[in-house]
Amino acid sequence: DIVMTQSPLSLPVTPGEPASISCRSSQSLLFSNGHDYLDWYVQKPGQSPQLLIYMASNRASGVPDRFSGSGSGTDFTLKISRVEAEDVGVYYCMQALQAPCTFGQGTKLEIK
Amino acid sequence: QVQLVESGGGVVQPGGSLRLSCAGSGFTFSNYGMYWVRQAPGKGLQWVAGISYGGNNQYYIDSVKGRFTISRDSSKDALYLQMNSLRTEDTAMYYCAKLLFHYDSSGFSADFWGQGTLVIVSS
Questions:
Q1: For the segment A61-102, what is each residue's pLDDT rounded down to a tens digit?
Q2: Which of A108, A89, A76 is nearest to A4 (CA)?
Q3: Contact, A77 vs A69, CB < 8 A?
Q4: Residue A32 pLDDT greater than 90, yes or no
Q5: B27, B47, B70, B117: best mutation site toward chain A, by most A Cβ within 10 Å?
Q6: What are the chain A neighbours of B111 within 8 Å (beta carbons)?
């Protein structure tokens, strides 16, 4: 199975400041069609996970444009340009290339 | 609007069985692959099992192979997870999720998730 490794695991951020989370996979997530199958999900307190970014850089429906995803192959990054209080939660990367899918450990974003 | 509603969770003794259900609505259920993800108390997310849109392909993590069976009944817009020989380590919230792309055409991204059903395995 593909191993996903996130950093940092804890991320205190001041509102209005940027934030960045890294995700590394144990093997390339680049498929022959040119897409990288890496997703980002957020689980806000008391809620189910929700899709933020798919195929490394595509924002899901309704996701604010302050969220962006980048990277290819085995190294990926989620960036929040200006953190807001509502962004508190645990952020997970997940490889969506092959089953079984695998998640990173999660990064807990908190407001300073 | 898309809705996924899980049911069937509860408290069961080690070695026991449970059948989880997930009712889908607001989309053409038969066109989308589905999967189950679980979250042990205070822990991260773990993908458990998936099934193709037509039901012909099933996928499992190693720790549940031979104990769990994923299935679907598209005439009822329902997804199931039959869990046998349950262990204490299966204790978790179980979420069902719908694939983003129809006909399993591009990866395993999931755009809608249910609210979850809690399974507790304890003597």
A1: 999 999 999 999 999 999 999 999 999 999 999 999 999 999
A2: A76
A3: yes
A4: yes
A5: B47
A6: 51, 54, 60-61
